[in-house]
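Revision sheet: structure tokens.
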Amino acid sequence: MPADRPASSVTTAPARVVRTELPGPKARELMATGTFDMQSFYRAAVVDDDASRGCSLVDVDGNVFLDMFASFALGALGYNHPALVAVARSDAFVRAAINPTSTPFLTTSTWFDFMRAMEERYAPRGMARMFCVDAGGEGVEAALKAAFIVHGEKRRLAAGASADPLAMDDAAKARVMENAGTDAVLVSFAGAFHGRGLGPMSATHSKLMHKADLPAFPWPTAIFPANRFPLDRFADENATAEADALVALERLLDQHAGRVAGIMVEPIQSEGGDRHASAAFFRGVQRLAKSAGAALILDEVQTGVAISGTMWCHEQFDLPVPPDLVTFGKKMQLGGFFATSDYDIRRFGRMYQTRNGDRARAMLAHATLQTIDAEDLLKNVRETGRFFLAGLEAIAERHPTLITEPRGRGFLIAFDLPTPAARDDFLARAMRRGVFASYTGTKSVRIRPHLITGVPEVEEALSVFEAVAAEMHG
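Predicted:
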């Protein structure tokens, strides 16, 4: 078990302390001037990103929090990591930031450095191509397009026609232009969250507020088995739920035979409540996708880039062949998808977007990935994550009516409270004691530590969680 984060990550971090009410007076004053921002009412803190270091988030009032939130898993290396600071201060980064390019048409040598690194070391096994956009939700949208494009081309070929859409007859072209060009569908799972664009939102089934009043494609929804924890106690129940879910998925695919372009699933349903399924379940989903001629799309926007203890969470599933498409975002600093050769879209204009790759963000992504290697952060996440989960399980044993179902892979960690109100109260009390965590699902606490988080930080978080649980029990 590591005693601390690797030495090269150590930065001088201020001790955790909460000096003011939350938000503090300076934060409230700033927030009052920022209401032109439509999303200003969400704001929980105003960060002093000069004073923040490592896992310590400092706000403008001088309050110092242990950050177990990482901005919904955006953060990877903590605050002001020297490797990222060095990149951002380089002349090459300045030029990439101030000289935007339509990267598919015009780029510079730094882009090729990034692409070579992705191809040779960091992309998931079996991927032949990478497609870049600005953020994870856009990456999901783009992956859906790739799945539907390949599906449509295959259907035309199977019908004895040309795969080229420009070779369609005038009536078929008219149907396309009138939004009636396909009856293809995508299958996603109950509890899923895939982004806020209208395509990804059609595959999202986690919260009513995300979807109310928005038009959506009439795509089918499969059952997600959502394992109960601890796994040994619920082994039979979980196995039955997964078997039933696979039977239901097969029936759903049969109902839409020939029309399923893809099956999209998160390795862990993060926004939906950190809901898990076994590796065997994902292998079963892949088997059914292959049988249906559908792409298996793994949405790794939140679960990718080392946070699970492997570079990509699905590496832990022992899939017999690579998935067809894998989306990414968050810790990658930009979004997009990886594709096998079957989903390599080359026809001009089919997938192109103006940017298709921010060179400055790619430089930060490359530096992040190199630091994960240099500081052995995959090992840290695996070992420290096990320590964290064991500590939460011990707290749950001491407070069984309050803390239930601690679960996790690496630093993708969560536990439940009895009600949404109890969960929110727990998070507020923890924040007043200097630990910043977050919510997910209806009653779950979501923990997303930075990859550099070590045992001392975990022990501090566990101490606060224990104190909050005792306080709430009275």
